[in-house]
UniProtKB/TrEMBL annotation, chains A, B:
Name of the featured protein: Putative competence-damage inducible protein
Source organism of the structure: Neglectibacter timonensis
SUPFAM superfamilies: CinA-like (SSF142433), Molybdenum cofactor biosynthesis proteins (SSF53218)
Database matches in SMART domains: MoCF_biosynth (SM00852)
Gene3D superfamilies the UniProt entry points to: 3.30.70.2860, CinA-like, MoaB/Mog-like domain
Family under the similarity heading: Belongs to the CinA family.
InterPro entries to which the protein is assigned, alphabetical: CinA, CinA-like_C, CinA_C, CinA_KH, Competence-induced_CinA, MoaB/Mog-like_dom_sf, MoaB/Mog_dom
Amino acid sequence: MNAEIISVGTELLLGQVVNTDTAIVARALSALGINLLYSAVVGDNAERLKTAVETAITRSDLLIMTGGLGPTADDLTKETTAAAAGRKLKLHEDSLRRIQTYFNEKHVSENQEKQAWLPEGCTVLQNDNGTAPGCAFQAENGCTVIMLPGPPSELAPMLENYAVPYLKKSVNSVIVSHNVHIYGRGEAPVAQMMDDLMDGENPTLAPYAKEGECYLRVTAKAADEQQADEMCAPVIEEIRNRLGEFVYGIDVESLEALVVKELLQQGKKLATAESCTGGLLAKRITDISGSSAVFDMGCVTYANEAKEALLYVPHEILEAHGAVSEETARAMAEGIVRRSGSDLGIGITGIAGPDGGTEQKPVGLIYIALSDGSQTWVVKRSPIGRTKNREWHRHCAASQALDMVRRYLEGLPVTVE
Amino acid sequence: MNAEIISVGTELLLGQVVNTDTAIVARALSALGINLLYSAVVGDNAERLKTAVETAITRSDLLIMTGGLGPTADDLTKETTAAAAGRKLKLHEDSLRRIQTYFNEKHVSENQEKQAWLPEGCTVLQNDNGTAPGCAFQAENGCTVIMLPGPPSELAPMLENYAVPYLKKSVNSVIVSHNVHIYGRGEAPVAQMMDDLMDGENPTLAPYAKEGECYLRVTAKAADEQQADEMCAPVIEEIRNRLGEFVYGIDVESLEALVVKELLQQGKKLATAESCTGGLLAKRITDISGSSAVFDMGCVTYANEAKEALLYVPHEILEAHGAVSEETARAMAEGIVRRSGSDLGIGITGIAGPDGGTEQKPVGLIYIALSDGSQTWVVKRSPIGRTKNREWHRHCAASQALDMVRRYLEGLPVTVE
């Protein structure tokens, strides 16, 4: 089954809005084993839209339209697509009532009512997060046409809850992907280690790099989800065998989500002492709802005086080794454990750039320490390869800290050669 | 001048990557006054790509291709586009030398060398951030064709430094936009206040909402930049007259960048005490390079004990009013000033959700306090309208804190009715 997407909206052609709808729909189609051959963006122009829809209906089995279903005059998708597909619009009473309820009144304006006019005989896709319903129908030549609203907060749930189930009826296979998340080994060496596994056609295996981490995606096509899962399982097992402790999870949301979960399970608390990451690590931990049970306190100590006052870092250490040093990171981690009474403490100090680097201590040099009150481990990150920016250095240092906590909690060596 | 974009890459059709290139190019075209009529994504398939390029060259004056210029076998853009445009590829010696230098060796592999083969007679667009050069040339029918590399970190600077100057020669007008950044007034009331100004055709005025803030974009088309600026100026002036202190800047990068700059100018220091924002405010301040001169210390105090120990919040206040209260926010702000010795201190406490809300203290209730050591101001944020998520509540609370600092530094009333 070959598909294409047409997104409608002049704002997408002015670059004011990034077209995330296409990626959302593309992932869903990929999971259904439907080949997406084209995607296009057309402005709010009836003539150009008509031409694009006609071409798509002629060459593809499935056309997904996003955007242009709203109440205003420049929302042209339904009229234009229905005409190109040889269908008339008809008032859909249920949708009108939903719109009336949404606005909490009996009489809705003509503009708002316009949204309830849908192609005759279509399957209505209910909008649980807005006013414009979507729809699915077959064009005269047999091409399936699906229309979804533009706002991603409306499109994503409608796609998942109504459009995908509709499409599942017409495809007889599913594609299932599982992501094996890896920390501490880069994309290139991981790909090399998995070289022989990457020739497989079903399941397939592909490596991806993402913000200083990498993951392997295992994808299988089968008649149903269970069968696809069973095909993925031995490949995931083999990856685990080869990468061991560097695999931190399968299909996990993030390192911080995993760490918060493991801290909760073990009833342990973590505290943070940050210099160059400036609160980013604490922010990432507290991004996770429920983190208050494992996180009492974090200190952002940019100034040396703050490191001394809040974290008991000895003045002599700062004097002798400087703020960016293994010794300071160690003292920060130990100091925050003492200050907070938490089970574990992280200390991070380094040079995030773009300014402040020297020959001895270049931008990107960051020390990360983990202490449990009786023992302390330090990892030194040095800049290698292409120049990265401030955001990247900060993000990677925070990730490294999270992975050290993960390793500690899982009983693995905290530092890796 | 009518343009279209074709992005090449199967990964874009699998939804693994969001197509940000199109938005970047679209904004640049918009600024040049070039109409973008279509954008499309085609996979790494020579036949479909050829058809798409042929259609584009026939109907548009300008075609911009992104992606598929790299060294691997599925990088087909140059061969396919050159063939469709009636051009041969030729080895470009300078580009080959740049690739050799990049890899720090004399002999580069055949794959890498492939990147230096470019359409005969083209203008080469140098890649300062990678190996694959871009190029610009005219097809046989006169359509201008520009090819840019896919990675946004390579595409964006090449576009700005080489492709835009190339295009400027062929357009005889420029479009200039200025953004008027507003805090404390929403998009809808701002739009209403500017109603009469929004009918203008040149310059135009349009309101945008962005993560709890809003801005007005003033856009003028003229023969050159200076003239366009002069056309925008009176509109910007009028907006300033109407919105006054709610305008925090024209074309500024962010609230945090503005606040760090103003703190630097006034030689003042700021410290932060965060509960529900969990380090996000400190993170946003330290996102700004050079912030170490104005930011010594931040505390993330999730637990009540941490609020008492680090910020001297009296036990009685926590007992009597709870952690989420005006009194606690006030004590946190005053406490961090005392603890840090900074000129200004922020205290934030609230319920970011999704859990932890009650009828008296619902999710979204957040108190933000600013203290200068002698006086303290508190703003209460209450959840209104549609339910927002944890990230939104945290972001908006941090923005509110930054705006309070901005108001203080500019001598405006810190709190607004």
